[in-house]
Amino acid sequence: MQMYVKPILLSAALILSAVPVAAQSLEGDRFSLSLGVFVTDRDTETRLDSAAGDGTDTDFESDLGLDSSDTVFRVDGYYRFAERHRADFSVFDLSRSNSKQIERDIQWGDSLYAIDTTIKADFDLAIYKAAYTYSFLSDEDGYLGGTIGLYVADVKTSLAEPTLGQAEVGELTAPLPVVGLRGERKLSDRWTFRASGEFFFVEYDDIDGSLVDLYAGLDYSLRDNLALGFGFNSVTLDVDAAKSDFSGAIDWQYSGGLVFLKLDF
To answer: If you compute the radius of gyration of the chain from its CA atoms, what whole number of angstroms results?
Structure first.
């Protein structure tokens, strides 16, 4: 738990510094859509267990040669349906694949892949985020709100040895409930600072996990309904599961910069 204290306090400080003290009405556009690119740096360690025991903790970047950095398309947005109420969403895909001659034995589910075997690795990961935010502090220059929502990681991991027709697949859709803070502050006529922090911790039944999702960025207004945005997003996810379609562990993180166009309606 101590490893999450610093990011939680940092996120709270960024958001609190971005909002005014007054509590008045929030003005602005009702719907916003951001279209951009997300340049990510990733670290993925995954284990697929079997009924006989635990599998091998496998680093998908160093052990299997998957790209540690990539650029993906990303969609973010929100809909403000009442003065202090809004819904936020994000969608992007972080899937990767590679073939490599492995340098050690890997126990993956029921299959053992021996050293020097050339295997094809797939890590399919789609992210869907949705959250409701209530602004308990707001005025014409910004707001601070509490947020509750879902962070959905749709994960499919696969190792295959094509010449032998040997393959093991693990699939997990993890809808993780998150709570946190979201804030925005207008710095000048053209610059706006935005930040958010969302968190999840659970130990229940067949799932034990945690999630920390932090964002901070600046928007530069090009015209009344169009802005150019720059941001940084960091996510750490640690999930152990014992389910019929996925028994094992996923310990991964991604972080990187965003450049996007923000359209307001």
So the answer is: 21
Instruction: Write out 15-33 in H/E/C secondary structure.
Output: HHCCCCCCCCCCCCCCEEE
Provide φ and ψ at 155, rounded to 5°: -115, 135
pTM (predicted TM-score): 0.85
Q: What pLDDT is recorded for position 244? A: 67
Q: If you average pLDDT over residues 202-222, what whole number do you get?
A: 88
- 1-15, 61-75, 98-112 — which is least confidently predicted? 1-15
pLDDT at 24 over 60: no
Cβ-count burial of 254 within 10 angstroms (0-12 exposed, 13-18 middle, 19+ buried)? buried
Contact residues for 53 (Cβ-Cβ < 8 A; gap 6+): none
Cα(211)–Cα(125) distance, integer angstroms? 15
More confident residue, 205 or 161: 161
Number of continuous H segments (helices) and E segments (strands) in the chain: 1, 14
CA distance 258 to 263: 15
Task: Identify which of 58, 164, 165, 43 has the alpha carbon closest to the alpha carbon of residue 109.
Answer: 58
CA distance 133 to 94: 26
Residue 134: both structure tokens together: 């209530």
Bridge partners of residue 252, in order along the sequence: 44, 237
Give me the torsion for CA of 175, 249, 181, 217, rounded to 10°.
-110
Instruction: Indicate if the pLDDT at residue 26 is higher than 60.
Output: no
Q: Are 31 and 81 in contact (CB under 8 A)?
A: no
